[in-house]
């Protein structure tokens, strides 16, 4: 029986992905900063483990607690929306600590066991903004673009050891906690000069033509984790699939 470790399982895509792999018969290590067992199925195959991807001690402790894993899903991430000139660099750096360096640190921590066993899969959750960068998300897009390049390169490097590295690129899901998981209020990051430009963009967020569901992302992660072909990218959700086809 295979074991998957997923980061950021307290809500949204990570929570649904943990449920999906459990329903598929896998052992699941559902990690989150503040562990909550009650949101996941009670089962011998479901373990909830504390993990903050920005803290290397926390990463080491979580991996020591869960034993060998077959698949790592780097899902944890935070958002940051607003005009780039108004974004305090301290928040841009925090964004990269989670979305970019957190993914790299988690990946680096599991490579030795995957390489030694000549098996294993790393699935990195980025975003459809990497397929079509959108305004008012420059830092966020950059944090995810960095992981796209990282993943593409690493896929070659670890392919030499039969370790697979994949990308899941979800579209926009207003139903997750993502829009609220920023320390900054969006209004603070839209200077007056940008108000007319930002208004229609935010109106588009409020009434999207197509949205991604948590189940779309869970299914895409499942496909990526089980894929034995050389396919790198797995867009998730109708909006992401449309962007991938257009790009
Ligand atoms: N929703 C969208 O529209 C959308 C679109 C494209 C891509 N994505 C990406 O999809 C992924 C999941 O997002 P979501 O929409 O499911 O949002 P979400 O509901 O806010 O879930 C994000 C998860 O990341 C966790 N997290 C944040 N910082 C962390 C850290 N330092 N260490 C460990 N966990 C941390 C959060 O846990 P806490 O409870 O501890 O805060 C939460 O469980 C993210 O990588 C996001 O960038 C989202």
Structural features, described:
- The chain has 247 residues and is α/β, with parallel strands linked by helices.
- It has one domain (3-246): 3-Layer(aba) Sandwich (Rossmann fold), CATH 3.40.50.
- It has seven helices and seven strands; from the N terminus they run βαββαβαβαβααβα.
- Strands 3-2-1-4-5-6-7 form a seven-stranded parallel sheet, with helices on both faces.
- Strand 5, helix 4 (138-159) and strand 6 form a beta-alpha-beta unit.
- Helix 2 (56-66) packs parallel to helix 3 and helix 3 packs parallel to helix 4.
- The longest helix has 29 residues, at 89-117.
- The model has no long low-confidence stretch (mean pLDDT 95).
- It binds NADP nicotinamide-adenine-dinucleotide phosphate.
- Residues 7-14, 32-34, 51-54, 75-78, 98, 102, 125, 127, 170, 172-173, 176-178, 181 line the site of NADP nicotinamide-adenine-dinucleotide phosphate (NAP).
Secondary structure topology:
Elements lengths: L2 E4 L5 H12 L3 E6 L13 E5 L5 H11 L4 E4 L14 H29 L3 E5 L12 H22 L4 E7 L24 H12 L7 H13 L6 E4 L1 H9 L1
Parallel strand pairs: 1-2, 1-4, 2-3, 4-5, 5-6, 6-7
Helix pairs in contact: 1-6, 2-3, 3-4
This protein binds NADP nicotinamide-adenine-dinucleotide phosphate (NAP).
Keywords: Oxidoreductase
Organism: Aminobacter ciceronei
Protein name: NAD(P)-dependent dehydrogenase (Short-subunit alcohol dehydrogenase family)
Give the DSSP E fraction (strand runs of 2 or more residues).
5-15%
Strand order of the largest sheet: 3-2-1-4-5-6-7
Tally the helices: what do you get?
7
Helix content: 40-55%
Order of helices and strands: EHEEHEHEHEHHEH
| CATH fold title | Rossmann fold
Question: Poorly predicted ranges (pLDDT <50, ≥5 residues)?
Answer: none
Instruction: Give the terminus-to-terminus CA distance.
Output: 38 Å
The biggest beta sheet is recorded as: 7 strands, parallel
Question: Which descriptor suits the 3D outline?
Answer: globular
Q: At the first level of CATH, what is the class? A: Alpha Beta
Give the CATH superfamily. NAD(P)-binding Rossmann-like Domain
Mean pLDDT: 95
CATH architecture: 3-Layer(aba) Sandwich
**Whole-angstrom Rg:** 18 Å
């Amino acid at each position: 029986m295979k074991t998957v470790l997923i980061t950021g399982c307290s809500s949204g895509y990570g929570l649904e992905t943990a449920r999906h792999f459990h329903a598929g018969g896998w052992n699941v290590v559902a990690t989150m900063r503040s562990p909550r067992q009650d949101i996941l199925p009670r089962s011998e195959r479901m373990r909830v483990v504390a993990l903050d991807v920005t803290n290397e001690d926390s990463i080491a402790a979580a991996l020591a607690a869960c034993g060998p894993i077959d698949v790592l899903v780097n899902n944890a991430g935070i958002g940051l929306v607003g005009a780039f000139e108004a974004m305090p660099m301290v928040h841009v750096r925090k964004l990269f600590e989670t979305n970019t360096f957190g993914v790299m640190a988690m990946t680096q921590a599991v490579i030795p066991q995957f390489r030694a066993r000549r098996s294993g899969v790393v699935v990195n959750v980025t975003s459809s903004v990497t397929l079509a960068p959108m305004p008012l998300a420059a830092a966020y897009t950059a944090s995810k673009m960095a992981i796209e390049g990282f993943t593409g390169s690493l896929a070659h490097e670890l392919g030499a050891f039969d370790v697979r590295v994949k990308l899941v690129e979800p579209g926009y899901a207003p139903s997750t906690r993502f829009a609220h998981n920023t320390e900054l209020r969006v209004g603070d990051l839209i200077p007056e000069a940008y108000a007319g430009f930002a208004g229609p963009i935010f109106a588009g967020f409020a009434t999207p033509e197509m949205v991604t569901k948590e189940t779309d992302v869970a299914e895409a992660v499942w496909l990526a984790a089980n894929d034995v072909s050389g396919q790198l990218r797995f867009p998730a959700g109708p909006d992401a699939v449309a962007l991938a086809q257009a790009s």
